[in-house]
Amino acid sequence: MVTKLEADLERERLERHWSESELGRVKSFWEITQRDMEDKKAELRNMENTVEGAEERHQLEIKVRSVA
C-alpha cells in the first residue's frame, strides 16, 4: 500500500514537472508570437505610410501635368 502511494506520488510529481515545463514553453511561444505580431504591425504601418506618400506625390504629378 505504501509503495503504491509512493509510486503514485512520484508519478504525480513527474506529471506536474512536465505540465510546468509545457506551460513555460507555451508562455515563451506566446511572448515570441506577440513580439512578432507587433513587428509586423509596425512594418504594415510603415508600408501604409509609404503608399500614402506615393499616392500624394502621384496626385500632385497629375495636377502639375494637367496645368502644364
Walk me through what this model shows.
The chain is mainly α. It contains 1 helix and no strands. It has one helix at 2-67. The protein is rod-shaped, with a radius of gyration of 29 Å. The relative contact order is 0.05. The mean pLDDT is 96.
Protein traits:
97% helix, rod-shaped
What is the straight-line distance between the termini?
99 Å
Radius of gyration: 29 Å
Number of helices: 1
Major sheet, described briefly?
none
Q: Approximately how much helix is present in the residues?
A: over 70%
Strand residues, percent: under 5%
- Classification by helices and strands: mainly alpha
The backbone outline, from C-alpha atoms, is rod-shaped
What is the tally of beta strands?
0
Low-confidence sequence ranges? none
N-to-C SSE string, H for helix and E for strand: H
Mean pLDDT, to the nearest integer, reads: 96
What's the helix and strand layout?
Elements: H1 2-67
Describe what is shown at a glance:
With 68 residues, the protein is mainly α.
